[in-house]
Amino acid sequence: MALFTVSRIQTTPFDGQKPGTSGLRKKVKVFVQPHYLENFVQASFNALTEGKVRGATLVVSGDGRYYSEQAIQIITKMAAANGVRRIWIGQNGLLSTPAVSAVIRERVGVDGSKATGSFILTASHNPGGPNEDFGIKYNMENGGPAPEGITNKIYENTTTIKEYLIAPDLPNVDITTVGVTNFTGPEGPFDIEVFDSASDYIKLMKSIFDFESIRKLLTSPKFSFCYDALHGVAGAYAKRIFVDELGAQENSLINCVPKEDFGGGHPDPNLTYAKELVARMGLGKSEPEGEVPEFGAAADGDADRNMVLGKRFFVTPSDSVAIIAANAVEAIPYFSAGLKGVARSMPTSAALDVVAKHLKLKFFEVPTGWKFFGNLMDAGLCSVCGEESFGTGSDHIREKDGIWAVLAWLSILAYKNKDNLESKLVSVEDIVRQHWATYGRHYYTRYDYENVDAGAAKELMAHLVKLQSSLPEVNEIIKGASSDVSKVVHGDEFEYNDPVDGSISSHQGIRYLFEDGSRLIFRLSGTGSEGATIRLYIEQYEKDPSKIGRLSNEALAPLVEAALKLSKMEEFTGRSAPTVIT
Residue 31's pLDDT is what? Predict the structure, then answer.
């Protein structure tokens, strides 16, 4: 059993080490500065209670992006020095964010140990590579992101830190080989276990879904399937689940080899960045080669986000969570006893609200950030939730879960087609259009203006807040832009009073609510590593069955025009068009 010693390294604080709802994200060149990562990790250890560090079991893994392996070695040496008892690492350092949550909640070590937290190494859907993004966040013993009280403590600690602890002579661990390595330090034994990245997660998925019914669908000659991991960590699960367990053809998987730079692409599963999948599904600018599959899906870098497509048909994330909720009890065994409640983030369309009202379910509208869903789930108030930014999930873990969402859709397709696998299939488009016919349609789009000057972005938001003091002026501006738009009846900054812990979250997005149920939402996003991202959400509700089949861009054109004029988007940002439209 190898021995190691502990060193106290003197350090000084860095500016801007404040973790957001998704952790700390910066360019790699920032993270590789001497002491930068170490400061944040020590600040995190110092923010936790002693029982969550000394003698604890922690998970350290991520999406495999550039700098992950070095970070794993540093965190492992620091964990040993801080009195952690054991570290669990996914083979090759790979664990999807949802799999980390599952491992914390479900995995039991050979000695009966359970994890009490994790360092997840990911910048989610942002690019990877030497000149791109890296990120780190801490998840708690419930498998969910650290609450604001902890992230605030971490930040406070980064501003005053003077030293960190590390075991410099602890050898680097071989993360490519499954097994346990034992060491002894000043406080006793310290173990590092490298384990199979997929087994625990697959076991959990098999307890939720009817894999046999999905297998019948995927092996039917009538059904075709395509899954794009965008060279993210979902590739570590795709073959094991879709091919080995469910019988899909291996050639139905594309970009499923995890790469530290995501193959030079942007691992964000939307119509702009998932180009190969979009083209294969018949939604590109040119006619696809070969037959278009019945179902397609994509994941982001850490596999917590998803995009669902039918043959030549895009399913909005807002519609997706509403449709999963509407069909969950019939199609997914895990929910057979009924849903406890449903929830969505504020910018997400109100499609889920209508389902909740129809099915008499508890409903919650929360700020953007998965921790708010986690609170509801821990209190037994929510079963299914989602956000417009391609995040969907349930109370099986405390993170959004991209592969879970794909399996949920495949379960719905399998259920709808259980009696007609030999005849004409019920398609993704059929399911969505039937949903609209039943519940009405929420026309919806999001405009992202990325890497905008931060000062200009703040000025734009301040302008929108100031306008809310005079709705007659707002309506005059809107009517000047388009006469086809309803009247604004309310404007505010969204504030959330958490029904579980009583905490209040203010300034969560600027809302303009219209008489006919339409909405304009403006938010600044903190998910990028530099500059600011302005997100504009545009929604129009249509109950008239004769009007639910319009093209989304045509139906929303008057509201888009009104939003751009109201916000003075081009005047403030210099942008004549958004970076991404979804």
Answer: 97
Residue with tokens 């709705």: 471
H-helix or E-strand spanning residue 214: helix 211-218
Amino acid at site 133: D
Task: Classify residue 51 by its DSSP letter.
Answer: G
Integer Cα distance of 170 and 197 in angstroms: 24
CB atoms within 10 A of CB 549: 12
pLDDT digits (tens, 9 = 90+) for 283-306: 988 888 889 999 999 999 999 999
User: CB-based contacts of 538: which residues, under 8 Å, 6+ apart?
Assistant: 444, 445, 446, 447, 519, 520, 556, 559, 560, 563
- pLDDT tens by residue, 39-72: 999 999 999 999 999 999 999 999 999 999 999 9
| 3-state SS class at 26 | strand
Q: Are 201 and 98 in contact (CB under 8 A)?
A: yes
Q: 133 - beta bridge partners?
A: 27
**Residue among 96, 124, 394, 427 flagged as catalytic:** 124
| Tokens describing residue 415 | 């259920």
Q: Let me know: does 80 contact 55? Beta carbons within 8 Å.
A: no
* Residue 393 in this model has a pLDDT that exceeds 90: yes
Q: How far apart (Å, rounded) are the C-alpha atoms in residues 260 and 56?
A: 29
Token pair listed for 518: 């339409």
Q: What confidence tier does 526 reach under pLDDT thresholds 50, 70, 90?
A: low
- CA-CA distance, 222 to 214, in Å (whole number)? 13
Element (H, E) at 411: helix 402-416
Q: Is 124 a catalytic residue?
A: yes
d(CA 453, CA 463): 16
C-alpha–C-alpha distance, residues 386 and 242, integer Å: 23
pLDDT(433) > 70: yes
Q: Tokens standing for 506?
A: 């203010």
DSSP letter for each residue of 322-386: HHHHHHHHHH-GGGTT--S-EEEETTS-THHHHHHHHHT--EEEE-SSHHHHHHHHHTT--SEEE
Residues 6+ apart with CB under 8 A from 399: 97, 98, 100, 101, 139, 143, 144, 145, 304, 370, 393
- Choose among 516, 476, 474: nearest CA to 491: 474
Q: How far apart are CA 398 and CA 150, in angstroms?
A: 17
Which amino acid is it at 535? Answer: R
CA–CA gap between residue 310 and residue 562 (Å, rounded): 31
Evaluate the CA torsion angle 328, 330, 332, 338 in order and state its sign. positive
Q: What is the pLDDT of residue 431?
A: 98
The pLDDT value given to residue 530:
65
Contact 111, 182 (CB under 8 A): no
Report yes or no: 533 and 447 within 8 Å, Cβ to Cβ.
Answer: no
- Kindly tell me the burial class for residue 469, based on how many C-beta atoms sit within 10 Å of its own C-beta (0-12, 13-18, 19 or more): exposed
Token digits of residue 474: 């707002």
Total H helices, total E strands in the chain: 18, 27
